Amino acid sequence: MNTRGPTPGEAMSDKGNKAWTVDAAERSIAVKASVAAVYQRWLAFEDYPRFITAIKRVRKLDANHFVASLGFNGKQYETTLEVMLRVAERRLAWRTLADHRAPDHFAAGVVSFTPLSDRSTCVTLKLSSSFGGAISARIDKYLHNFKRLIEAEIHKSERL
To answer: Is a pLDDT exceeding 70 seen at residue 8?
Structure first.
């Protein structure tokens, strides 16, 4: 039995079926909001389509499982996401589960939150995906969208 996993960038095979590669990238951004506010906002999985443009809809199944409708390269996919790790105000990790909805696709991510001050947080997103297509640029876009979303919400609440 071979238990060795692939090295980064090495093609993985699905038990002799279609081989696929996994792209990965990591980016960070400073957000003008407390780590508690940033973490709580990131926990709102159903709102992911507001900043992760590839996600079109998220439906909660239970506390750790969600069905996400995705759009990549002109194609629509639906997959089950599983939250694997939650460390309050520090880290979240998730992955897709192989199922009939997207049997040939894999994605996993980790988002980390580091307080820079009482009102500023560094958000670091690491994403690995077999869906392909400019993952570094996508992560930059997702983080900038998230920053705009939360900073606008914080600014609006401070004016009230």
So the answer is: no
The mean per-residue pLDDT over the stretch 100-115 comes to 82
CA atoms within 13 A of residue 24's CA, in its CB half-sphere: 12
Other Cβ atoms less than 10 A from the Cβ of 155: the count is 11
- Please compute, for residue 41, the number of CA atoms within 13 A of its CA located in the half-sphere on the CB side: 25
DSSP secondary structure letter of residue 64: T
Return the sign of the alpha-carbon dihedral for residues 120, 126, 127, 132.
positive
At 129, is the secondary structure helix, strand, or coil? Answer: strand
Contact 111, 87 (CB under 8 A): no
Q: Where are the alpha helices (DSSP H) in 9-134?
A: 35-42
